[in-house]
Amino acid sequence: MLVDDSIVRGTTSREIVQMARDAGATQVYFASAAPPVRFPNVYGIDMPSSKELIAHGRDEEAIAAEIGVDRIIYQTVEDLIAGCASFNPKITQFEASCFTGEYVTGDVSADYLVSVEGERNDEKLSSVLQATADLDLDVING
Question: Does domain 2-141 have CATH number 3.40.50?
């Protein structure tokens, strides 16, 4: 069975793989049309913290083991950029920091990324959602 899934955290992928195995699949291959997302985007896309990204700090073999597939196949950054550039050769620079860790503005420091980690994680999100829910109940109960 071929699983095509671009979930960056891997939890959904792991569940889909397990469902495929439970249904009798003896081999499961994971194919993504994107390169592995290894780094946070700091230019306005709300993403999980790097520690929550399935590919952060892992090679393809480790990612495959983590989600339980026999083989994982990713698009390469080079092929992605070449494919996009073929539509408009005037564009010579692409923002691919979530794949490469190279930030085009040149001003993203390690300290800044640490501060982003503190703001973008499931624990922080959970506390914000709980506070929002508490506020909503206060308004309803008035």
Answer: yes
